[in-house]
Known about the structure:
It comes from Saccharopolyspora taberi. The chain has helices at residues 14-18, 44-53, 65-73, 80-92, 127-139, 156-167, 206-216, 229-260, 264-271, 295-305, 311-337, 366-375; strands at 22-24, 34-38, 57-61, 95-98, 109-112, 145-148, 177-180, 199-203, 223-226, 346-350, 379-383, 389-391, 397-399, 409-412, 429-432, 444-445. By secondary structure, it is α/β, with parallel strands linked by helices. The chain has 2 domains: 21-227, Rossmann fold; 265-445, NAD(P)-binding Rossmann-like Domain (Rossmann fold), CATH 3.40.50.720. α8 (229-260) runs parallel beside α11 (311-337) and α11 crosses α12 (366-375).
Amino acid sequence: xxxxxxxxxxxxxxxxxxxxxxxxxxxxxxxxxxxxxxxxxxxxxxxxxxxxxxxxxxxxxxxxxxxxxxxxxxxxxxxxxxxxxxxxxxxxxxxxxxxxxxxxxxxxxxxxxxxxxxxxxxxxxxxxxxxxxxxxxxxxxxxxxxxxxxxxxxxxxxxxxxxxxxxxxxxxxxxxxxxxxxxxxxxxxxxxxxxxxxxxxxxxxxxxxxxxxxxxxxxxxxxxxxxxxxxxxxxxxxxxxxxxxxxxxxxxxxxxxxxxxxxxxxxxxxxxxxxxxxxxxxxxxxxxxxxxxxxxxxxxxxxxxxxxxxxxxxxxxxxxxxxxxxxxxxxxxxxxxxxxxxxxxxxxxxxxxxxxxxxxxxxxxxxxxxxxxxxxxxxxxxxxxxxxxxxxxxxxxxxxxxxxxxxxxxxxxxxxxxxxxxxxxxxxxxxxxxxxxxxxxxxxxx
Length: 446
């Protein structure tokens, strides 16, 4: 029996629902197809590399010459094998880099992969997305397939791509093909490769969906079609909203375990032995990165415009935002129990990137944790072998310190694979926000 690709807790009906999927089964397309990738960040660069590695002639477009210079120098946050492969496709010319918008007009297909952050008030920052779509629409030519992959609000593909193209006199589905296919890149996780991760495609017309799926099929073995760009846009939001709600619940269960003197990892793993109806997550110091702390706010922002509320999503995002404060409180509690006033204590935060194995600081809980501890009067340092320096919201900066026994308390925040953190056990107090650091017998959980 073929493995069922659906991860659903629906009381054993996954195999029935599998029949509702619409797989795209055509071949990957011809070698040498010209594809432009707009935006060469954490999504765009791996996408451009994957396409070039599988035979496409790729133009990587980015408005930042500094970013293009980093890519040429190999100074990028990619696994070692991909970094070596990147050098190969650059040297061979299968991947060309450009900051000239006119280069987009030569491509047969254009994939938009720009960031979609939120501001301090959790309002979507659409500046990069609007600018990229405007550029792509201006440079579009007859015969092109244009695919948006950036996570965004429902209706974006029509509003920022299809409508501007129509105003230029282009017929969608005939002259030019427009679709949305949400990215599913998991930075730092070698278990979830692009090739093995299914993708979803929704086109403005059925022909748009078919054309876009041929392009996306180059970088993955499985593509599924949905009825519209809007369905695909909400699919991605739902994926990340589910993750946000689940993580908020995991952190709450961890707090319950703290009060009941139980190990939340033991409880979660035990619950995970149930083969149906449970999809667990592990707790942590907070939720960072480019997706979970940001993407749900795109839907909440859109719903507010319709005067509609989503209270469960709202509460989950509030819980996520408040999690670093809980970690600060636990540090201060442990210091007080040891008889140390905040002004007399030295604390080190171990690992400051938002996720193990990456250098990315976006939305990292470590930054508000450090700020909160400093505000309380604690002398705070950090140690991170991947992040030599951090800049805080107040404009001050810190540099990574070597590991050692010199701190009163170490907070285990992010543990990068391949590094030894055994030195932390020499510190008198170890507070484990990863819930998985077992090298210090005296460690306590957040």
